[in-house]
Design goal:
The protein is 18% helix and 29% strand. The chain has 608 residues and is an alpha+beta fold. Helix 10 packs across helix 11. Strand 12 and strand 13 form a beta hairpin. The protein has an eight-stranded parallel beta barrel, surrounded by four helices.
Length: 608
């Protein structure tokens, strides 16, 4: 088959074809659930699945390129093809996506010499290697070779970042050089000169917007007089940041804008069809003068919610789509009020595992061990004259513990010369004295009298994914001093938390259960629970303040009492019939040692 760009339409084997696509990021969805989410996209009336490719997820360190398990992009695309659907692939190299560092590997910028998203030899050489590593996955899965891929996007909203046609030309040439032959696209907001700045005549321009469809398409047509109109990011919701409200958009309003777009003959990629979750430490952040880390949930108020269930938006969009294209009948379980489950949804091999448990479940965390007591299982220390960055330590994300010895008979004021990236819990001799937060522009804290160990437990809360601060290092940036006198002779250790070190889990399992209803952090707390049947669940940690949670060793991500989200998604495939284990790292304190496994999520208050 052939896919091409005509004067007014996309052409599939020479016939006009409308792309009805939905975004699913394979790296935000448990791989055992990929087939279920793809099938549901088809049931909404879509004929195409779009995904970014997260370079940094595949390349966690230099010389590594992982295409296994949840990163098996080839398998994901094969599942798309198995549903009889097409695919749009957006390998970047920059993707934004509210994903840490916008998808760019942290190690690429560690020495400070490599450029970011520009015509710079070091950056382009790394991109070339990345694309060559992707070639065996993408090239044979193009539509003209019998695969599902019909479009490939070059870069991502580049017009909002720069205007360098030479850079874009070199990227395009690299994509062609690995054997990609399908049409190439660009995407930008139809505002100002972004469409012109972010593309080339050889790239088919598409728009990104979520409202005012007629005006946006008019601006797109002005920038590109011929060819099919396409909104390749139709924003049907929005992402959440910690400390803000949960974003929603009315289903009727989004459906109306979609109707206008399709009535104009446009093609569409719904962003997102299914958002998924920022498991582990994969969330990004924004910094436009104030640092804002993005929440763990990436529900996005999408047609398919975080647990893969149809929302009112699913049915509203489906009703619009069926005016313009054939739509298959819905199974009863997918109708409003149904369970949202398909017969193909079976991650356990046991038909009974699809039965929803009747009640929520309380889990007592009765095994407690301080972070200090488990450091030997989580760390490898190194010595430094000054505090190293995460990047210098080879730490992509998570936590680094910094230590030095101090002699302060009358106390003093600890200062960070430039910036804390992103949050530091400050302790003296194991007693917490306060927190330094990048979000509050904190750079100083008073220390009590102490002769002993000063510790800073620094958390990377998400690398900036948009704008000029992409690629910046993490950790304690600038001179660290007390009363203006620099501190030296540091030791530093990244904590092995994602995945969590098996030796730490073993040590926790050997801790004797204790009574008590509170926790003083930083501390680990663990408990076990039994399930007769497994399904997607939500973890509620009422009374806890801030930390990280794991179920059966799988890192669910960060929790924070500031919200908006009050629960963490637990994919069904992570759970098992019989005994399950829950572990929490609480950084501060908890008024409870009881967690709850819920059947429904709580994503927080909405605006208004």
């Amino acid at each position: 088959m052939r896919f091409a760009i005509g004067d007014t339409d996309f052409l599939l084997d020479g016939e006009p074809h409308r792309v009805l696509s939905g975004a699913i990021h394979y790296f935000r969805v448990h791989p055992d659930l990929w087939a279920d989410r793809i099938r549901k996209a088809k049931l909404m009336g879509l004929n195409t699945i779009e995904t970014y490719v997260a370079w940094n997820a595949h390349a966690p360190s230099p010389g590594v390129f992982d295409l296994t398990g949840g990163l098996d992009l080839g398998r994901f695309l094969d599942l798309v093809a198995a549903e009889g659907m097409h695919a749009i692939v957006r390998p970047g190299p920059y993707i934004c996506a509210e994903w840490t560092n916008g998808g760019l590997p942290y190690w690429l910028f560690a020495d400070g010499t490599v450029g970011v998203r520009r015509d710079e030899p070091g950056f382009l050489a790394a991109v070339s290697s990345y694309l060559r590593a992707l070639a065996p996955v993408l090239v044979p899965r193009q539509i003209d070779q019998g695969g599902p891929i019909v479009l490939v996007q070059v870069e991502n909203e580049y017009g909002a970042y720069g205007s360098d046609p030479v850079y874009l030309q070199k990227l395009e040439q690299m994509h062609r050089a690995i054997g990609l032959t399908v049409p190439f696209t660009s995407v930008d907001q139809p505002m100002g000169t972004m469409l012109e700045d972010g593309s080339l005549p050889s790239l088919h321009k598409t728009g990104s917007f979520g409202s005012r469809s007629a005006a946006r398409l008019e601006r797109l047509r002005q920038a590109q007089p011929t060819g099919p109109l396409m909104c390749s990011e139709f924003w049907d919701g929005w992402f959440d940041s910690w400390g803000e409200h949960h974003h929603t958009t009315p289903a009727a309003a989004s459906a109306s804008d979609l109707d206008v777009l399709l009535a104009a003959g446009g093609s569409v990629n719904i962003y997102m069809f299914h958002g998924g979750t920022n498991f582990g430490f994969t969330n990004g952040a924004n910094d436009k003068g104030v640092y804002r880390p993005i929440a763990t949930s990436y529900d996005y108020d999408a047609p398919l919610d975080e647990a893969g269930r149809p929302t009112p938006k699913f049915h509203a969009f489906r009703a619009v789509i069926e005016r313009y294209a054939p739509v298959a009948p819905l199974p009863a379980s997918m109708e409003p009020g149904g369970s949202g489950r398909l017969e193909s949804y079976d991650h356990s091999g046991d038909r009974e595992a699809r039965v929803i448990p009747a009640t929520d479940l309380a889990v007592r965390l009765d095994r407690v061990a301080s972070l200090r007591s488990l450091l030997r299982t989580l760390t490898t220390w190194s010595a430094h004259d000054e505090p190293p960055t995460f990047d210098a330590l080879g730490a992509a994300s998570g936590f680094v513990l910094y230590r030095t010895e101090v002699d302060l008979p009358t106390g003093g004021v600890l200062t960070i010369g430039e910036e804390v990236r992103d949050r530091a819990v400050v302790s003296v001799d194991g007693v917490v004295v306060g927190v330094l937060e990048r979000e509050h522009h904190d750079r100083a804290i008073a220390l009590p009298p102490v002769t002993g160990t000063l510790e800073l437990l620094v958390e990377d809360q998400g690398r900036v994914d948009y704008g000029v601060r992409i690629g910046e290092p993490k950790g304690l940036i600038g001179r660290v001093a007390v009363d203006g006198v620099p501190l030296s002779r540091w030791t530093a250790a990244p904590l092995a938390l994602d995945p969590i070190a098996p030796s730490a889990l073993e040590a926790l399992s050997a801790v004797d259960p204790t009574d008590g209803d509170v926790l003083a952090g930083p501390t680990f707390a663990a408990g076990s629970f039994d399930l007769d049947a497994v399904d997607d669940r939500y973890l509620a940690l009422d009374g806890f303040r801030k930390g990280v949670a794991w179920v059966n060793g799988f890192c669910l991500g960060r929790y924070w009492s500031r919200g908006p989200q009050q629960t963490l998604a637990i994919p069904g495939p992570v759970l098992r019939q019989g005994r399950n284990d829950l572990v929490v790292l609480e950084l501060h304190a908890a008024a409870s040692r009881t967690a709850r496994l819920l059947l429904e999520p709580s994503l927080g208050h909405t605006e208004g």
